[in-house]
């Protein structure tokens, strides 16, 4: 469970901070590489409309950025 004060980012905000595409953020969230919170109505099989939304904890983005900066250094 997230603390009440935890800042949540949209997929677009996360993609911009990590300098990747939005589909990459969705892929990473689906695989578990990037922790995410999904809410709303799930997408029904065969439905063309989008399902629920996801949010990414800012702490997860900061950890990923820190990991990348350590690898570069």
Structural summary, described in words:
- The chain has 73 residues and is of the alpha+beta class.
- It has one domain: Orthogonal Bundle (Arc Repressor Mutant, subunit A).
- The chain is 45% helix and 14% strand.
- It has 3 helices and 3 strands, in the order βααββα.
- Helix 1 (11-18) packs across helix 2 (22-31).
- The mean pLDDT is 85.
Structural class: alpha+beta
- CATH class (first level) name: Mainly Alpha
Number of strands: 3
Oligomer: single chain
Report the major sheet: 3 strands, antiparallel
Strand order across the biggest sheet?
Answer: 1-3-2
* Topology pattern, helix = H, strand = E: EHHEEH
What proportion strand?
Answer: 5-15%
State the distance separating the first and last CA atoms.
Answer: 33 Å
Helix content: 40-55%
Outline? globular
Radius of gyration: 13 Å
Q: Determine the number of helices (DSSP H or I, runs of at least 4 residues).
A: 3
CATH architecture: Orthogonal Bundle
Mean pLDDT: 85
Short description:
This protein has 73 residues and is α+β, with helices and mostly antiparallel strands. It has helices at residues 11-18, 22-31, 58-72, and strands spanning 8-9, 37-39, 53-57.
Comma- or semicolon-separated keywords:
73 residues; Arc Repressor Mutant, subunit A; 45% helix; 3 strands; 3-stranded antiparallel sheet; alpha+beta
Chart the SSEs and their pairings.
Layout: E1 8-9, H1 11-18, H2 22-31, E2 37-39, E3 53-57, H3 58-72
Antiparallel strand pairs: 1-3, 2-3
Helix pairs in contact: 1-2
